[in-house]
Amino acid sequence: MQTRRALLFVPGDDRRKLEKAAALDVDTVILDLEDGVAVNRKDEARATVDAALRELDFGRSERLVRLNPVTSGMHKADIAATVHAHPDGYVLPKVETPGEILEVSADLWQAESQRRWPSRSIILLALIETALGVVNLPGIATSDQRLKALILGAEDLASDLGARRTAAGHEIAYARGALVMHAKAFDLDAIDTPYVKLADRAGLMAETTLALDMGYSGKLAIHLNQVEPIQAVFTPTIEEIRAAQRLIRAHDEHQAAGSGVFALDGKMVDMPMMRAAVIVLQRARAAGIDPDTAV
Ligand code: COA
Ligand code: MG
User: For the domain with range 6-233, which CATH number is right: 3.40.50.2300, 3.20.20.60, 1.10.10.10, 3.30.559.30?
Assistant: First the structure.
């Protein structure tokens, strides 16, 4: 199971930052060709991303490339310049229709079959960051088996809505809820929007915890310093692991004794809590922790 807790954006034309990101213990690096790159530096970024994919050792990190949107027409050149290095996948921004996913997927299928790579060995993640993208979530989420995750892009969405960004985030609450609902309905990861206040660690942790509470499994990062706090929030603590194991043990004992519901520490426990405990252990394993030997 691929775990994507922090996904770090790196401007594709900045070799120095790409090297820093490659050396980092981060689940996913997104080498950006879209809005992190000036319009007049797209060619340079394509060449720099291609070289980085071929030359740098990203360690355990997943390597994704963010394309320019299908509507820009630039995505074909982005794929052509980078696909032969076989990135793990592409992030498609400003997705508004299932057709955009299908179009890119067909191009990737062609690239894979030409090189005799396993089909669908290059995955897709869709950034949802316009009103139309949110409204079309059911079709987008079911468009293609290559699609593994839906990502919320709140800054672009707010500007598309004519909304103003607030600390509480009410203006994006509907989209944040809709995105995780569609992701979970169709077995995709839900990944939250980046936190743009670079120096506000407490704010970042609070917003990441909100995403975790809502069912999100990861969050975009835009600075090196954001990676560790995000990955920490999405990693269960030893106390959470212990509590989950205790609950599962108690549940098993009560099931064996013929009772489906019981009280533990003054709280009712039945099947949904049991499943939540199982998910805590799954998240621990995905983060590289063995619940049975963790101390
Ligand atoms: N990836 C890799 N390295 C990064 C990084 C990133 N996303 N963000 C910062 N760094 C590095 C810097 O290069 C710097 O290294 P150095 O001192 O050895 O040169 C170090 O971390 C400290 O950076 P800092 O001075 O705090 O920030 P900055 O002013 O250089 O950069 C940003 C600020 C926002 C421009 C930068 O964080 C960035 O490029 N983020 C990604 C933005 C992006 O891709 N946006 C599009 C998607 S929303
Ligand atoms: Mg965007």
Answer: 3.20.20.60
